[in-house]
């Protein structure tokens, strides 16, 4: 197997060397493709002859090299635009500019069909440029809440992860620059190890996406896409500086990119960001030990030559996160009193110190990819990824020093994907190998055991296009092998001194399942479109759901696994009605998902676990059939030339249909809307004033006495943004943004916050963001 992987990785190098060994002509043809509005177009196909083709990059540029003198016919095509054919006589190095006219009837397809990994019938939502600007410096999950149907779950304000239509953690895939993000994402308190500053585009694909992306994509996919490297100039980049009042800290980000003059086909980028925040504050008190420290950096190189594109990418994400000290409690009476009080008994002074309990996480990701175009319609993509996730969780120790972690886990992941595209068809094979090791010497029994996991999947997708009707169908098969070894507690054997005996657990599991998808996209008119998709996806139970038995120090809970769990299988239907015009945008996503053997952690208010570390709420993994259904609405309207209104609304219902009861930790109904006034018209789209309102209802759909505390009341929050854009010259731009979150300093709790038992959410926060592009 290892020799096969090495052979596949060396194949691109062999082809490149073979191509360069052939003698040819030396003419270069380069150019740019843009729309009739002057916008550069990415992913445009330019066919030079039967066997030569190129694709534009993120800034609309393409390149042919080693061209012989002669007469050529250029065919330029891009979905959503009228094609163009031009015949030219080429005798020397030539620069071309193509301008394509938009085809209105297919504008809705452009963002979906034109992407290799996309699905034409799925509901795809992207953050706008304004929403990206406002979210800079926030966590990935916080940024995505601007999309209807997306909320968060986590602990406090720094440990949060995205929720799509009620599903999160191992049911949501995050694709970080094309690589499936693999860390210890099984816990609600394990935030994604992704730096949002890497992303030029943040997208959410709703619906079961198991065919293209593989097992675990029951709820949807988050796409984190960096922008293409700008090779039109030797040097460029951006600098971001931010300061915020709540936490009394800030964020800095810098990136540099360009091209080497002697090698214009080679692009490079360097990027780094850092964050430093102290304890966050509610309207009336400081939440002790909730500071954040973060240092991230990345590098990328891409090289285009003839029909080949090579890319190397590396990123490091490193963070230290404090966990509220008051969540770690000594006795049963104390935990009951604190939950009933709803806020800390202690008074904390603000500090930047991050003591125990805390998390320290580092994540390294490396990617190597090669794409070869046989012609305009056929290509092969080979992508290798390596990830190393190192998670350490610290608690207050009674004997040893607090700098010795209670949990020390290293998860290594290797992946290899090969995808062949031929016209409207794609077939692929994906493999993934994971090894999880608990570092010895912590003095505690790991909450999850050591394991090796091997995954293999094959898939095929075909698209049909008949006038205004577009359809697609796909199928996939996955196999997973899990080999586990680790020590567990023997609950029925307590020693005379009160200690609990341990035993060595060894286990192997095999999981396999098929996935499928069928969907259509139909254009009623240039303004109205309908998408409908039904997809089957699945996931195997994760190691923590099967084998956890101990204190989860990251969440201050005691988790108990269930070795009898079966694979989850989800059938999700989603239909989207879309209305798009120059003044109005409207999208309604209606969905229903039946989850067989749905796995969830049920809080047990009748029981807590007392350990030498303290007393903790008990969460036990259970499995039942469940039904999720709801609607997500997105509406925006241009009242006047400079006045814009937008609103998002999400309503979700979920039930345990095996027991005919409600499920725990389901997001409540929510609405967020705002009105923006553009100060200087279309010439400065990033200069505006905005007032926004967020409303989250109380979650009434829960089982009484099934949780440690009833869901908190509904809340209203008001936010304000003022932004100004300064165009210094054609290449230099300065953006200033002043944001006030929770303007009226409202005290509130969110049902999806695990710390709501003990404390409130963040109060007013004023932030100033400065962004300089050059």
From TrEMBL:
GO terms for molecular function: siderophore uptake transmembrane transporter activity. GO terms for cellular component: cell outer membrane. Residues 1-21 form the signal peptide. Keywords: Cell outer membrane, Membrane, Receptor, Signal, TonB box, Transmembrane, Transmembrane beta strand, Transport. It is a multi-pass membrane protein. GO terms for biological process: siderophore transmembrane transport. Residues 329-743 form the TonB-dependent receptor-like beta-barrel domain. Residues 119-221 form the TonB-dependent receptor plug domain. PANTHER family: HEMOGLOBIN AND HEMOGLOBIN-HAPTOGLOBIN-BINDING PROTEIN 1-RELATED, TONB-DEPENDENT OUTER MEMBRANE RECEPTOR. Belongs to the TonB-dependent receptor family. This is Iron complex outermembrane receptor protein. It comes from Sphingobacterium paludis.
């Amino acid at each position: 197997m290892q020799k096969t992987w090495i052979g596949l990785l060396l194949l691109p190098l062999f082809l490149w060397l073979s191509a360069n060994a052939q003698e040819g002509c030396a003419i270069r043809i380069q150019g740019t493709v843009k729309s009739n509005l002057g916008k550069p177009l990415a992913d445009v196909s330019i066919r030079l002859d039967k066997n030569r083709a190129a694709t534009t990059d993120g800034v609309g540029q393409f390149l042919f090299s080693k061209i012989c003198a002669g007469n050529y016919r250029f065919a330029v095509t891009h979905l959503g635009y009228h094609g163009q054919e031009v015949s030219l006589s080429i005798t020397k190095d030539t620069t071309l500019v193509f301008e394509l006219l938009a085809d209105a009837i297919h504008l809705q397809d452009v963002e979906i069909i034109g992407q290799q990994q996309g699905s034409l019938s799925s509901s795809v939502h992207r953050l706008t440029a304004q929403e990206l600007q406002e979210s800079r410096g926030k966590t990935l999950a916080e940024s995505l809440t601007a999309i209807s149907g997306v909320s968060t779950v986590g602990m406090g304000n720094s440990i949060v992860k995205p929720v799509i239509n009620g599903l999160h953690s191992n049911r949501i895939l995050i694709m970080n620059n094309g690589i499936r993000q693999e860390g210890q994402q099984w816990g609600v308190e394990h935030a994604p190890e992704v730096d949002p500053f890497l992303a030029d585009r943040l997208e959410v694909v709703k619906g079961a996406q198991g065919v293209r992306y593989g097992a675990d994509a029951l709820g949807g996919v988050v796409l984190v896409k960096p922008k293409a490297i700008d090779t039109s100039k030797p040097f460029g980049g951006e600098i971001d500086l931010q300061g915020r009042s709540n936490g009394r800290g800030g964020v800095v980000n810098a990136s540099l990119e360009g091209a080497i003059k002697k090698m214009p086909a080679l692009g490079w980028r360097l990027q780094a960001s850092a964050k430093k925040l102290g304890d966050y504050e509610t309207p009336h008190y400081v939440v002790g030990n909730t500071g954040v420290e973060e240092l991230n950096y990345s590098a990328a190189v891409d090289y285009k030559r003839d029909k080949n594109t090579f890319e190397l990418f590396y990123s490091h994400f490193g963070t230290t996160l404090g966990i509220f000290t008051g969540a770690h409690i000594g006795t049963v009476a104390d935990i009951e009193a604190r939950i009933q009080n709803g806020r800390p008994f202690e008074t904390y002074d603000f500090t930047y110190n991050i003591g125990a309990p805390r998390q320290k996480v580092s994540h390294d990701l490396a990617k190597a990819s090669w794409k070869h175009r046989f012609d305009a319609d056929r290509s092969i993509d080979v992508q290798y990824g390596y990830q190393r996730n190192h998670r350490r969780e610290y608690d207050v120790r009674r004997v040893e020093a607090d700098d010795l972690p209670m949990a020390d886990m290293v998860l290594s992941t290797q992946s290899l994907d090969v995808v062949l595209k031929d016209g409207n068809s794609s077939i692929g094979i994906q493999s993934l190998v994971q090894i999880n090791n608990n570092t010895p010497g912590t003095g505690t029994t790991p909450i999850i055991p050591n394991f090796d996991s091997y995954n293999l999947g094959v898939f095929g997708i075909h698209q049909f296009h008949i006038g205004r009707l577009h359809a697609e169908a796909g199928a996939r098969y996955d196999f997973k092998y899990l080999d586990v070894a680790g020590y567990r507690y023997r609950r029925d054997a307590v020693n005379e001194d009160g200690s609990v005996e341990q035993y060595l657990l060894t286990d192997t599991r095999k999981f396999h399942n098929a996935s499928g998808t069928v969907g259509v996209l139909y254009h009623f008119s240039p303004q109205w479109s309908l998408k409908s998709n039904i997809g089957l996806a699945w996931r195997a139970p994760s190691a923590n759901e099967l084998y956890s038995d101990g204190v989860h120090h990251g969440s201050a809970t005691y988790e108990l696994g269930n070795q009898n769990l079966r694979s989850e299988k989800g059938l999700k239907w989603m239909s989207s009605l879309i209305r798009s015009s120059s003044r109005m945008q409207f999208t309604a996503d209606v969905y229903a998902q039946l989850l067989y053997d749905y796995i969830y952690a049920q809080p047990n208010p009748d029981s807590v676990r007392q350990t030498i570390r303290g007393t903790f709420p008990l969460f036990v993994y259970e499995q039942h059939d469940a039904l999720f259904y709801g609607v997500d609405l997105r509406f925006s309207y241009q009242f006047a030339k400079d006045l814009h209104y937008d609103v998002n609304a999400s309503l979700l219902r979920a039930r345990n249909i095996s027991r005919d009861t409600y499920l725990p930790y389901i997001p409540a109904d929510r609405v967020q809307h705002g009105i923006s006034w553009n100060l200087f018209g279309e010439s400065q789209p990033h200069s505006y004033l905005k007032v926004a309102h967020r409303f989250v209802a109380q979650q009434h759909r829960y089982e009484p006495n099934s949780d440690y505390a009833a869901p908190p009341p509904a809340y209203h929050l008001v936010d304000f943004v003022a932004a100004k854009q300064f165009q210094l010259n054609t290449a230099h731009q300065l953006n200033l943004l002043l944001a006030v979150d929770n303007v009226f300093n409202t005290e509130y709790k969110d049902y999806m916050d695990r710390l709501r038992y003990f404390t409130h959410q963040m109060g007013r926060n004023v932030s100033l963001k400065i962004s300089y592009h050059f």
